[in-house]
Amino acid sequence: MASQPRRGGVSLPERRGAKSSESSSSVIARLRESPIVLRGRQAACDAAFVTKKLLKSTGKAAWIAGTTFLVLVVPLIIEMDREQQLNELELQQASLLGTPSQPPK
């Protein structure tokens, strides 16, 4: 035992002959090449592609809606709030001065 030289590394089992015929291929390889599996794989790839496109389009639409809201709606809300505060201030001043208050138009 001590007289045999040691070789490093891992020894792998010998490979069988090349896959020359279909009978020598393994069951998994035959299943992998079956038309049902190939069609399922293609359907999964198509579904992933459509999902990716849909998410990208949804993101773009959300960006457009968000920026439009910030540019158009937020200033309108701020202006309406200012108008309401001004009306309340006018009503408060009118009640302090004793003039008859008029309902807001």
From TrEMBL:
Stretches the record annotates as Disordered: 1-27
Keyword Protein transport: yes
Record field: transmembrane: 61-78
Any one Gene Ontology cellular component term annotated for this protein: mitochondrial outer membrane
Superkingdom in the source lineage: Eukaryota
Entry's localization field: Mitochondrion outer membrane
Pfam families with a match to the protein in the record: Tom22
Chief site of localization: mitochondrion
Family that this chain belongs to: Belongs to the Tom22 family.
Name used for this protein in its record: Uncharacterized protein
Source species of the chain: Carpinus fangiana
Lineage of producing organism: Eukaryota, Viridiplantae, Streptophyta, Embryophyta, Tracheophyta
